[in-house]
Write a structure and sequence with these properties.
With 442 residues, the chain is α/β, with parallel strands linked by helices. It is built from 17 helices and 13 strands. It is globular and about 65 Å long. The structure holds pyridoxal-5'-phosphate. Residues 33, 98-100, 103, 127, 129, 175-177, 202, 204-205, 228 line the site of pyridoxal-5'-phosphate (PLP).
């Protein structure tokens, strides 16, 4: 990317972009909701489509001068259907600003406030917009939460079906934020149909794996499919809603004017570019490699004696269960790994004894490193580096007294500065990372 105009006009922002470039190049980005967008995607998303107002949909805008945005939005819709292999039986809305407003738009489009919705609990892998009480979804609708099996830590479809029959939700959400296994979308759809509910799949995390053919698709049966475009799909930050044609009018109205105003046509242009890339054979190779890398990472962590939620991974992500060390230590691991320039996120695990801000797990994903060209050998190495940090630092106790926790974290972070283990791992991280180019930067 060329930032010469910013460099001339705004050295402060330019400096921050350059620092972030360096961070993204020299570190190991292992957050499962991230990946690297290509230069072409970034150029489209930063293009002059930014300047245009275009409320409503192609052919019926509230503004003049929409000839080109109409074409780019229609092109994006066409490519979205092609990439996911769906025909005219599905409509697709490409205007949602991001995954959260997309989900809320679906709820307000198809339901009344207070209606019952079924979804997976947040600490079992569900998203905030799947009915967390601190999110608008949980305040405006009556959520009934299902859980993963206490022992296997995977979905138990019989239990979900029984809960659905008992509670009769109007909509059932499948698709998660933190679930390392394959989702049987057909079973989830059948459970919904059995109780007369609308089936919704939120494939935000795994959209790229579905397009790449390494995770079963929720098409052509699921009623509504929402997805972000910036996770494994490697597009700009945005979202799409697919729906069966019968829901087209309601969904479109739910997005605009129900939830949003003017669409971000520059983002839509970027999504169109990302979808074209996602239909190339190289993308299929990337998706296959993401899963292979995830399995290699899991094997590496298991061989170091660490415990993984559900015992491993079938997709792009996995979670280390830190409970064997003690509760509430996810934040220490996030900080220690960050000090060594490995980015992960602390994550609640099923039946976590600690609250979400001090959870007992960390979540790791392989999409960003795979998009840099890393393969099994590099992920095994990354796993060994992660394990070294975990074993060194997860022994630090999290105080039970809530008042003392933030102080404990501060103190922990201050000890990292002089840690030889951090210094060593950081040097190895940099040596490994800088061997691989970064899409959009190099
Ligand atoms: C990331 C995610 C979202 C929300 O996306 P944002 O773009 O962050 O608003 C919604 N649902 C799931 C399952 C996600 O993983």
């Amino acid at each position: 990317m060329n930032y010469s105009s910013i460099q001339n006009q705004d050295p402060e922002v330019y400096d921050l972009i350059k620092k972030e470039e360096q961070r993204q190049k020299e570190g190991l980005e292992m957050i499962p909701s991230e990946s690297y967008a290509s230069s072409a995607v970034l150029e489209a998303a930063g293009s002059i489509f930014n300047n245009k107002y275009a409320e409503n949909y192609p052919g019926k805008r509230y503004y003049g001068g929409c000839v080109n945005v109409d074409l780019v939005e229609r092109l994006c819709q066409k490519r979205a259907r092609e990439a996911f292999g769906v025909g005219k039986e599905y409509h697709v809305n490409v205007q949602p600003y991001s995954g959260s407003p997309a989900n809320l738009a679906v709820y307000i489009a198809l339901l009344d406030f207070g209606d019952p919705i079924m979804a997976l609990r947040l600490d079992h892998g569900g998203h905030l917009t799947h009915g967390n009480p601190i999110n608008l979804s949980g305040r405006a609708f009556r959520f009934i939460h299902y859980e993963v099996d206490a022992e296997k830590e995977t979905l138990n479809y019989d239990e979900i079906a029984a809960l659905a029959r008992e509670r009769r939700p109007k909509l059932i959400v499948s698709g998660f934020t933190s679930y390392p296994r394959i989702i049987d979308f057909k079973k989830m759809h059948d459970i919904a149909k059995d109780v007369g509910a609308i089936s919704m799949a939120d494939i935000s995390h795994i959209a790229g794996l579905i397009v790449g053919g390494v995770h079963p698709s929720p098409f052509p049966f699921t009623d509504v499919v929402t997805t972000t475009t910036h996770k494994t799909l490697r597009g700009p930050r945005g979202a799409m809603i697919f729906c069966k044609s019968e829901y087209k009018e309601k969904i479109d109205k739910g997005v605009f004017p129900g939830m949003q105003g003017g669409p971000h046509e520059h983002t839509i242009a970027g999504i169109a570019v990302a979808l074209k890339e996602a239909m190339k054979p190289e993308f299929r190779e990337y998706a296959e490699q993401v899963v292979k890398n995830s399995k290699a990472l899991a094997a590496s962590l298991l061989s170091e004696g660490l415990k993984l939620v559900s015992g491993g991974s079938d997709n792009h992500l996995l979670m280390i269960d830190l409970r064997p060390f003690g509760p509430g230590r996810g934040i220490f691991m996030e900080k220690a790994l960050e000090a060594a320039e490995i980015s992960v996120n602390k994550q609640p695990i099923p039946n976590d004894p600690s609250p979400p801000y001090y959870p007992s797990g960390v979540r790791l994903g392989t999409a960003p490193l795979t998009s840099r060209g890393m393969k099994e050998a590099e992920l095994e190495k990354a796993g060994a580096l992660v394990a070294r940090i975990v074993k060194e630092f997860a022994t630090t106790e999290m105080p039970e007294d809530k008042e003392k926790r933030s102080e404990a974290v501060k103190e922990f972070v201050s000890t990292l500065e002089d840690s030889l283990v951090i210094k060593e791992v950081k040097a190895q991280v940099k040596a490994l990372a800088t061997k691989f180019p970064v899409p959009g930067i190099d």
